[in-house]
Design brief:
mainly alpha, 2 domains, elongated, homodimer, Arc Repressor Mutant, subunit A, 2 strands, 128 residues, DNA-binding
DNA sequence: ATTAGCGTATTAGTGCACTAATACAGCATG
DNA sequence: CATGCTGTATTAGTGCACTAATACGCTAAT
């Protein structure tokens, strides 16, 4: 089975941010349940062949963002979220992605109605 | 009257990109009409207190993007009209980006109609 | 107390994007 | 030709984001 996190070293996205994005997505989709314990910085750093500081940076930022929290000592666990919070978190993820798409549409001078038409088609074409 | 271009040196956006964005905007809004001659790299570099190479970089990229074109020598002018030649390529870029957004929406179990609603909002927020 | 795990503050190294300095080639006009 | 403009290739400098190396303090268990 594939590891929980995968780092792509040649796509320009910094490793700590790839970690953050994937964990956030896994929390939003329920792959990581509330209360789940995260691997330690050294364990994860060994798995991903990264320095513990890189993991620490990602974890710290995730804690600052409210995605993770500390419990009894240094153990990092997935934060328990209300359903409404989970929903708003998912919507926030969507907005980020959609904003990039909308920005691209604007850069390409694609009319709004046509952008919407193409987007609808993409939604229909998306398969499981 | 204010100069045509204004560079903000402490907002993190590189100067050459500020130049590109402002010129593209002025073309889109008609402030720069098709066929209008752009100031020379040295003239503009003096006005903006930048190196001619920075202007040259912006101009070259704008030409590559199809916003400007060369005419009779080195004079750079605003390109006449966007034609349909690169249209299919632009739409293909859009489809790639939109497919990623649609895929995320599906992973997050966001209903189609709500995804479209959020996307429309993103399009509106992208203005200016 | 000792051991073994934990996270991270501090420091340093590295790569890259951006900008500038310099120098050169092309074109027009006298 | 000579002059004066044009754009830019080449090179170098600089700042910053990212990552790693090292070392330290902390907690828990024995």
């Amino acid at each position: 089975m594939p590891p929980l996190l995968v780092i792509d070293h040649h796509n320009g996205v910094p490793a700590y941010r790839q970690i953050m994005d994937q964990i956030k997505l896994q929390i939003a989709t329920g792959v990581l349940a509330a209360g789940a314990e995260m691997p330690s910085t050294r364990t994860l750093s060994a798995d991903l062949a990264l320095n513990p500081m890189t993991i620490s940076k990602a974890y710290s930022l995730l804690e600052h963002d409210g995605a993770l929290e500390r419990r009894r000592g240094q153990t990092l666990v997935v934060r328990a979220v209300k359903d409404a919070e989970g929903r708003s978190a998912r919507l926030e993820l969507l907005r980020t992605q959609f904003a990039a798409a909308a920005s691209l549409a604007r850069q390409l001078d694609i009319p709004k109605d046509e952008a919407i038409r193409i987007f609808k088609a993409s939604l229909d074409e998306t398969q499981s």
